[in-house]
Amino acid sequence: MEDLATDGDRIIVDIEGQEVAVFRIKDEFHALPNFCPHQAAPLCEGELTGRMVVGDDGWEWEYVQEDEIITCPWHGWKFDVTKGTNIKDQTIAVPHYDVEVKGDNVYVIR
Ligand code: FES
Predict the structure, then answer these.
(1) Cβ burial, residue 43 (10 Å; 0-12/13-18/19+)
(2) Distance from the alpha carbon of residue 48 to the mean position of ligand 1, in angstroms
(3) Which of 32, 34, 35, 36 most suits a substitution to test ligand 1, by most atoms within 8 Å of the C-beta?
(4) Which of 4, 17, 38, 43 is the most buried if burial means most Cβ atoms within 10 Å?
């Protein structure tokens, strides 16, 4: 758990030959494969950012989903870490694994 002590932390581990990233976001844990469905880049080594949307008045921008969006380091596809879905095309997604915390340990359930 010490590797995931603060929000925004991530670790990439090998589970039975597959790299899986575990993220800590807003005191919750999310796990995704370290694999981009576009051309197989190490997706979870990309930048973790948020997303901006236009407010109701059509002029002001609002920062939402802070630190919940992972950007693929090769071609920039963006995925919602909390769901595994591509933010532009919801039909594209990576698995979002269940995570269980027991004491100081975080378990990925596949
Ligand atoms: S390999 Fe990830 S966007 Fe191309």
Answers:
(1) buried
(2) 15
(3) 36
(4) 43
- Residue 54, domain CATH: 2.102.10.10
Can you give the pLDDT at residue 64? 86
Residue 56 in this model has a pLDDT that exceeds 90: no
Residues 11-46: pLDDT tens digits?
Answer: 999 999 999 999 999 999 999 999 999 999 999 999
Scanning 4-89, the segments in alpha helix (DSSP H) are none
77 in contact with ligand 1, CB cutoff 6 A: yes
* Residue 56 belongs to domain spanning: 2-109
Q: Which two tokens stand for residue 101?
A: 């915390």
